[in-house]
Amino acid sequence: MDKIVVQGGERLTGEVRISGAKNAALPIMAATLLTPGKFVLSNVPRLRDVVTMEHVLRVLGAQVEHHDHSITVDTTNCRYHEAPYELVKTMRASVCVLGPVLARQGRARVSLPGGCAWGPRPVDFHIKAMRDLGADIEFEHGYIVAEARRLRGATINFETSSVGATENAMMAASLADGKTVIQNAAREPEIGALADFLRSMGSNITGDGTGTITIEGADELHPADVRVIPDRIETGTFMAAAAITGGDILIMGGELDHCATVASKLKEAGVEIIPVEDGIRVRGPERIKSINVTTAPYPGFPTDMQAQIMAVMTIGQGSAVITDTIYTDRFSHVPELRRLGADITIDRNVAVISGVDHLSGAMVMATDLRASAALILAGLVAEGTTEVSRVYHIDRGYEAIEKKLSGLGAKIWRESEN
Ligand code: UD1
Known about the structure:
There is one protein chain. By secondary structure, this protein is α/β, with parallel strands linked by helices. It is 31% helix and 26% strand. The protein is built from 14 helices and 24 strands. It has helices at 22-31, 48-59, 85-88, 98-105, 124-132, 163-173, 189-200, 232-245, 260-268, 306-313, 333-339, 369-381, 392-395, 401-407; strands spanning 2-7, 13-17, 38-42, 63-67, 70-74, 82-83, 107-111, 136-140, 143-147, 155-157, 179-183, 204-206, 212-216, 226-227, 248-252, 272-276, 279-283, 293-294, 319-323, 343-347, 350-354, 363-365, 385-389, 411-416. α8 packs parallel to α10, α8 packs parallel to α12 (369-381) and α10 packs parallel to α12 (369-381). It starts with a strand and ends with a strand. The structure holds uridine-diphosphate-N-acetylglucosamine (UD1). Uridine-diphosphate-N-acetylglucosamine binds at residues 23, 26, 92-93, 121-126, 160, 162-165, 186, 190, 302-304, 326-327. Residues 23, 26, 92-93, 121-126, 160, 162-165, 186, 190, 302-304, 326-327 line the site of uridine-diphosphate-N-acetylglucosamine (UD1).
């Protein structure tokens, strides 16, 4: 296992390039299962979650090859319909193969994902969507077993907006008989990216980006090529890195529109954010002002940036209140940030962070993907050395983060843990 070592105190300067979005790439990879043929996906980040999805596609019969940041998927011989526990348990997003496999093959067996580092995260909305589209669903030996000779268009009303369930419904409805209306649909940019891809495959989708998405089912779809959108969470994380170090960096390829709420919160904290050609310039202040943040579905502040903004607030002037309304116990980074000297109290899903003058380096443990990013950010300003162990979490969602940060002048490297 690897660990990341950071020697704090360097102000970040220079340029960094943003990779393709993990959360856009994964459902797009699943969507290739809808129809036989060869697809080329470019700007795909080389991440552990992408490799896991490649395995999922392979066990379903696809041929997958990757070359640098492109993936070729050939779904001509996809005749298997089971996504096994061994893969789904390592990545919950594997459940997004349910809709496309069911719609194309008339049946799907997908393992229930099980628990997560931050709570139960059920898949009931995914199942409700498939049932609304006319599928018979049973649960057997830890698997969702879905059957439908042909799905029928329907109105699907989600009680809470869900990114993954909206994606599964959009994919399945693209091959259903008739019209589907998804109410209270998620509006994240990754939904728009999937809709664009499905349209290029011949699906008739409108309304993505709003709370109501309409899909006229097609009799057949065809393969298409796609370029994955930039990762807004990686972009936000580098904005946070400039903020916390009082740095001045150019984030190239980042889409500011997709990070508008994060940008406006950072501005409130005293950070300068300036759009430039093909990127964003971010200049951190001498001292961060503490601000309050509440996570919400897009266009609200993303839960996937909650840990990173908390890291920034640990050295803020004043007190910050951070509330996560999406997940009620996504605070596993808090005890680790405290080991670095942060002053944080938690009451259920609300954290109060009293800014301290400085953090001090320590050994800490990454507990999940975004928590690891928060610990690295804190390590960038902590006095002395911070060692973040269990960095396999960060490899799920950040491409070469230590290389990108050292390119900006951080003293950071990877070592193998003994
Ligand atoms: C996606 C993102 C993840 C992000 C999350 C919230 C991907 C691959 N992952 O996850 O990084 O943290 O959005 O922005 O895109 N819920 C249910 N039942 C369900 C589904 C969801 O109760 O069947 C709840 C969840 O527990 C959560 C809320 O709905 O409280 C939103 O979750 P959802 O948008 O579905 O998250 P994911 O798609 O899993």
